[in-house]
Design a protein that fits this description.
The complex is a heterodimer.
Chain A (H helix, E strand, L loop, with lengths): L1 H12 L1 H25 L4 H12 L2 H11 L3 H19 L1 H30 L10 E8 L4 E4 L3 H10 L3 E16 L6 E8 L3 H5 L5 E2 L14 E4 L1 H6 L11 E4 L2 E8 L12 E4 L16 E6 L5 H18 L10 E7 H6 L3 H32 L1 H9 L4 H35 L16 H26 L4 H8 L6 H37 L10 E7 L10 H14 L4 E7 L10 E6 L17 E9 L3 H5 L3 E4 L13 E5 H7 L9 E3 L2 E2 L6 E2 L2 E7 L14 E5 L10 E8 L7 H11 L6 E5 H8 L1 H35 L1 H9 L4 H30 L15 H27 L3 H7 L1
Parallel strand pairs in A: 4-9, 6-8, 15-22, 17-21
Antiparallel strand pairs in A: 1-2, 1-10, 1-11, 3-4, 3-7, 3-10, 5-8, 6-9, 7-8, 12-23, 12-24, 13-23, 14-15, 14-18, 16-21, 17-22, 18-21, 19-20
Helix pairs in contact in A: 2-3, 2-4, 5-14, 6-12, 6-14, 6-15, 7-10, 12-15, 12-17, 12-23, 13-16, 14-15, 17-23, 17-25, 17-26, 18-21, 23-26, 24-27, 25-26
Chain B lengths: L11 H12 L2 E2 H11 L8 H14 L2 E7 L5 E7 L1 H28 L1
Antiparallel strand pairs in B: 1-3, 2-3
Classes of the chains: A alpha+beta, B alpha+beta.
């Protein structure tokens, strides 16, 4: 053992001495053999020859001895690494291309895979999250496939189900004015939940305690759990925060506890308060306001729970036939929580992951091509090394070390790219990508990337290594000087690689083309309003200070008058749901004297109804948004709480209910007075028709719309309004003067969600834009890599065929002939690749369907342009080597041989 | 003679070399000759196997080497058995005895 260690050091540290001694030993042995042979009567010449044959070549013997020494492997690897590094330094162009190619492929993959992992695969931070399900209602026949639950439905489901260990109802998208005597008032995001939510999730506050059942009673629910972020920003990280009082919507709330950092159930709410639902209140069975989450009992499967929900729905329908009549398609169903969170984003992510995978494949094909081309030019070098005693294993090892070195450097650079990409991705808003803050380079991703790099290096280092260490040396020596095309094997392999590169990039380009076309369609949708020069902001008046009645409209009237007086303001108005602003409210609109087939009916009321967007607006709103007025008038100051009720409807409403008729002076109703048995409709007269507006998102046309004056809001729901201001100059510049007008009226009233309308629209299409950007980047990468690949192969072939081309020119071939021949090679590759790629793209395009708007998955334009583009670029890439080929000087090439 | 020469079994070369050196120190060419002689030409040792084996055994401490002169006055590297090498030889001889006995029995039983 000690001897071995000593030898190891001697071998590594005193290499020169060891080497010279070895050389001497082999030489003296040769001399001894010679002497022996001469003593048997051979001539000196014969004796030397036989001695050399017997010994078997001094260099081979020495190499064998070196291989047997202690630490030989260290030395070998070191040598290979150094020679590999030397090779890369000698060919900086090759090295840079290969490393950059790999790095781009690996970087893109690392970033995207990390995102996919964080979003689709990471586990949710709750106890046994796989047993958590969301509970939804539905009225399929009324076009409502997924509906929130009402208080009564929640209580009944909680009672009669047999599958849940626990159920909780919540509303996660609230907000509140958070008062403060020192600072400006601010708006905080707020969730409401039944007390069961936190035990159900298995989440405990890190300070204080969660809600108790008693605190979840109406009138006792002025307690709050606060987020870690609010604790830091508003309570300055006060460790004694529990028990303190905070003022929300001008009501005092006691801080019950502090939620753990990163708790983001239902979104990033800064405050949670108990719902305080009233069990005895049966009136609001139709008010579907709450989401519900449940924990399955141990051993209950999804299928069993689903069947149980169907049973519960039937039981409810028997008990309350007026609400859940047979024709409504009423049902209750469950969705696993994870499914709920990622269902929307999954197709986009999977397609992006496929795209990056394809980019990595193309990158690998390119590297393989580069390595193959290069190793064939090194055939002679390899043959020389073999004849000097390098064993086949040793040569394979050297080639492998070189390509591994290349992939590892590429991998390192790629990881840096990936990290940069992830920094960019983390900057995105969590509305687009859930859990985006948790995206980080995980060790699994790192290992995967390293494995991919090592695999690439091995595979494409090995193929040429095996190939070129196999053929008889003499052949290689002969061929190596001149042809060295890598033989038929190398040529065919390179062609296959380039064809697959072209095919892969065609698939990606098609995907990108479809995405671009879809996005273009989206941008050219008419949303029903103009987006430029509009500043929007939101305000919510707390009911303590502004009880329902005239107080709320009076505030907004006052504010709008002040704003209209500001310099640079052209017009201003307010609306309860801003288009694309994230707030939707709809309800039944009953129609007088209509039998249109689209209308629905309910036994309690004699009039047909339709589910419509119900929106409350002030005068000046439609003028500000430039929503076209098709007929009649918009709201005016004369539409007050005491004047006759009026309504505006949109063109979609008008056409579906009164096709071919004049809708003006028809009557609609959204609320009734009187008891359940003597319902009195409160009719509003249609005084105008405006253009249809895309309220939810640009890619969905949406329901018909009914607008009512804010002054005539029967529900008091319009205390939360968006103010829209049309300006002559940059709308952002008005923010502060508008804010001071608000504070002049009410010092405690915060404004929030301040954005230009352009920004609101852009934010609403941020996810498709992200898909588009990433897709375009990947397709561009693929495109560039394929072009480099084609260029590389053609250029290599031309350089290998210089001799042959020289002879052709000498025999009278014209430049056009040469050019045609070279470009023809490129064209054949292009056509092969495009053919294969088209077949693949036609098959794969169907998976794009969920991402596309207004474009067929087999969009003829995309499928026509992309192949032409690719063939064009391929031909261009072969043009440069073709031009080189025509400049071959026959005399020089022939002399060169 | 040459056509009867056999490839050495894995591991036997070390034993033969150690056995050869047990008599007297020898240089590489001499060791090869001696092995040929004692096995009556059954084993011919190639320089490509002999020298790596010698260097390996030297690193393991079984043999040591010195430069010396042959009978004919030529310089050569002489290898000599060390105490550790002698122990190794005993171990290998015993192992070989057991193995060959077992193999012979197995072959006999086949017949």
């Amino acid at each position: 053992m000690l001897d071995s260690v000593r030898s190891l050091f001697r071998n590594l540290l005193r290499r020169e001495h060891v080497e010279s001694e070895l050389d001497l030993e082999v030489r003296t042995s040769l001399e001894l053999l010679e002497e022996e042979n001469m003593s048997q009567g051979m001539s000196p010449e014969q004796a030397r020859r036989k001695a050399r044959i017997d010994l078997g070549g001094p260099e081979q013997v020495k190499e064998e001895v070196r291989g047997a020494r202690a630490g030989a492997w260290i030395e070998t690897i070191w040598q290979d690494l150094r020679s590999g590094a030397r090779m890369l330094r000698k060919n900086p162009g090759f090295a840079a291309t290969a490393i950059l190619t790999l790095a781009l492929g690996i970087g893109a993959n690392t970033a995207i895979f990390s995102v996919v992992r964080a979003i689709l695969l990471s586990s949710l931070p709750y106890q046994q999250p796989e047993r958590l399900v969301n509970v939804w209602g539905q009225f399929t026949a009324e076009g409502i496939p997924k509906n929130s639950l009402s208080d009564a439905e929640y209580f009944e489901l909680a009672d009669i189900n047999q599958s849940f260990e626990n159920v909780a109802a919540y509303y996660a998208h609230g907000s509140a004015n958070l008062g403060s005597d020192e600072a400006e008032p601010r708006r905080v995001t707020r969730g409401f939940a039944t007390w069961t939510l936190f035990p159900l999730l298995g989440v405990r506050p890190i300070l204080g305690h969660a809600f108790s059942a008693d605190e979840d009673q109406p009138g006792h629910n002025q307690v709050a759990l606060i987020s870690h972020g609010l604790w830091r920003s508003f309570f300055a990280g006060d460790p004694n925060v529990v028990g303190k009082t905070m003022r929300m919507n001008n009501r005092p709330y006691t801080v019950n506890g502090l939620l753990p950092e990163g708790f983001d159930f239902g979104g990033n709410n800064e405050v949670w308060t108990p719902l305080g639902l009233d069990r005895s209140d049966q009136a609001n069975r139709g008010a579907h306001n709450f989401s519900a989450i449940a924990r399955l009992k141990a051993g209950v499967t999804m299928a069993q729970a689903s069947a149980d929900m169907t049973r519960c729905a039937q039981q409810l329908a028997r008990e309350y036939p007026a609400f859940y009549h047979a024709s409504s398609g009423w049902g209750v169903f469950i969705v696993p929580l994870r499914e709920e969170l990622v269902a929307q984003i999954r197709p986009a992510l999977l397609i992006l992951m496929a795209a990056t995978g394809i980019v990595l494949l193309i990158a690998c094909a390119n590297i393989a091509n580069l390595l193959l081309a290069r190793s064939s030019t090194r055939e002679k070098e390899m043959a020389v090394r073999a004849s000097l005693g390098a064993g086949q294993g040793r040569m394979i090892r050297q080639l492998l070390t070189e390509s591994l070195l290349l992939s590892l450097i590429g991998c390192a650079v790629g990881l840096a790219f990936g990290e940069a990409g992830m920094i960019a991705i983390r900057g995105l808003h969590s509305d687009i990508l859930p859990h985006v803050g948790k995206v980080e380079l995980e060790s699994n991703v790192l290992w995967l990337t390293l494995a991919a790099a090592a695999f690439t290096g091995l595979l494409f280092g090995l193929a040429p290594a095996i190939h070129f260490s196999r053929p008889p040396l003499s052949d290689a020596m002969k061929e190596g000087g001149r042809e060295g095309g890598g033989g038929r094997f190398g040529r065919r392999m390179r062609n296959v690689l380039v064809v697959s590169e072209i095919a892969f990039s065609l698939v990606l380009l098609t995907a990108a083309g479809l995405t671009i076309r879809s996005f273009y369609q989206l941008l050219h949708v008419d949303p029903g309003f103009r987006t430029d020069h509009i500043l929007t902001m939101r305000m919510t008046l707390p009911s303590v200070t502004y009880p329902s009645g005239p107080a709320v409209p009076r505030f907004f009237n006052q504010l709008l008058d002040r704003v209209r007086g500001l310099p640079g303001v052209e017009s201003a108005g307010a609306i309860s749901q801003l288009p694309l602003g994230g707030v939707r409210s709809s309800g039944s609109v009953f129609i007088e004297n209509s039998s249109a087939p689209v209308l629905q009916h309910t036994p309690q009321v004699a009039y047909g109804y339709l589910e419509m967007d119900q929106i409350f607006a002030t005068p000046g709103y439609f003028e500000t948004m430039r929503t076209p007025l098709v007929a009649g008038r918009t709201f005016t100051a004369a539409d007050t709480g005491t004047s006759p009720r009026v309504a505006l409807i949109d063109t979609k409403f008008a056409e579906s209910v009164w096709p071919g008729q004049n809708p003006l002076e028809k009557r609609v109703c959204i609320n009734f007075t009187g008891g359940p048995n003597s319902l009195q409709p409160q009719w509003a007269t249609v005084v105008g028709v405006v253009a249809h507006v895309r309220n939810g998102s640009l890619d969905v046309e949406g329901r018909g719309q009914a607008y009512f004056p804010q002054t005539q809001d029967p529900f008091g729901g319009s205390s939360s309004m968006f103010v829209a201001i049309r300006t002559a100059q940059d709308p952002v510049s008005l923010t502060n003067s508008v804010r001071s007008q608000v504070f002049a009226i009410d010092r405690g009233e915060p404004i929030y969600a301040v954005h230009t309308m352009d920004k609101v629209v852009a934010a609403s299409i941020e996810q498709p834009r992200l898909s588009l950007d990433l897709m375009a980047v990947f397709a561009g990468l693929a495109f560039a890599l394929a072009a480099i690949g084609v260029y590389g192969v053609i250029a290599f072939t031309v350089s290998q065929r210089r001799h042959e081309l020289g002879i052709r020119v000498a025999l009278g071939a014209q430049p056009e002939d040469i050019r045609r021949m070279v470009i023809g090679q490129g064209a054949r590759l292009a056509i092969g690749g495009v053919g294969v790629g088209l077949a693949g793209a036609l098959y794969l395009a169907r998976f794009m369907a969920p991402l596309l708007y207004g474009v067929e998955t087999r969009d003829p334009a995309t499928f026509a342009i992309v192949p032409v583009l690719l063939i064009g670029v391929t031909l261009a890439a072969s043009w440069i080597p073709a031009a080189h080929a025509t400049q071959v000087d026959p005399i020089e090439t022939l002399r060169h041989q | 003679m040459a056509e009867h020469s056999t490839e050495l079994l894995q591991g036997t070369l070390d034993m033969l070399i150690l056995n050869t050196l047990a008599l007297a120190p020898l240089h590489g060419v001499g060791i090869a000759r001696r092995i040929e002689q004692v096995t009556r030409g059954t084993f011919s040792v190639k320089a490509g196997s002999l020298f790596p084996a010698l260097h390996r055994m030297e690193e393991a401490g079984w043999v040591s080497s010195d430069w010396g002169e042959t009978d004919t006055g030529r310089r050569a590297k002489f290898y000599r058995l060390s105490a550790a090498g002698r122990r190794q030889l005993e171990k290998e001889t015993a192992r070989w005895g057991r193995a060959s006995l077992a193999i012979n029995r197995a072959l006999g039983a086949e017949r």
